[in-house]
Amino acid sequence: MGVLQAARGGTLLLPLLVISLTLLVLVPLQPVRASTPIPGTSIVFDAASTPSPPGCPSCSSISWSHTVGVGSNGILIVSLSFTGTPLPTSVKFGGMALAPLGNHVANGIHVGLWSLAVGSGASGMITVMFSASTDFLVGGSVSYFNVGATGTPSSNDGTGTSATDLVSASSGDVVVDTLGAETASSLTVSVTGSGQTQRWNSGPICFGTPCFVGGGSDKPASGPSVMMSWSISTGSDWSLIGVPLVPATTGPPIPEYPLGLSIFVIFMIIAYGLVKRRTRNPKDT
Predict the structure, then answer these.
(1) C-alpha triplet 167, 199, 100: angle, nearest 5°
(2) Which pTM was predicted?
């Protein structure tokens, strides 16, 4: 009789076990614990470089050198501001192609960002090639350490003496941007956002009547968004794009299953209780 009761209990336990395991796997609302930043580290600015001269009024290529310092999890950001042509056919550092992070065009003004993971002490030429000459072309490069990833770019454009772009970010991120502005007379630009640091500025480049200027900056994030702001000396058409850099972390996200696991445990306790009850009370069977 005892063997038969145990068998009946096992027969009941099996479907409950299957249900529990199914719920453990399929139950929604399973949060994923994000990787945690490496203790004691934050994104660190390394170096900024620009061409000399800072740009050209009509050309199909531009190049300059950049040297990375000493650190880990390095990234190189190349930012370009230009008019008159499609996107560049190639953006390279020491012969290695950079990946596009985002670009934006409005009123004929293109702004774009490209990135490449770089090792400590890397050095080489940045070369940008177009399929045809641009009316204006300026650029700059910035390197950072302790960067694990890049976020979603944000862009904006308009006309006037103030350029702004609200970029979604998280605390600990650093937003990198680039601006392009064009008008019929000479102009200058400067950053105005609190905590925002200008990393490069081409100064005015004129080609007959129109003049163009580009610049790049960065700003640490302390909340869910970062406002990037520039002042333009003369009312101009402008385009602005920014992207957040995300700090390096200890590893990939680690999944957790608190809800599914709780249900699994509850079902197993119920199953155990039913099996014990059937074993002790044969009349219930």
Answers:
(1) 55
(2) 0.75
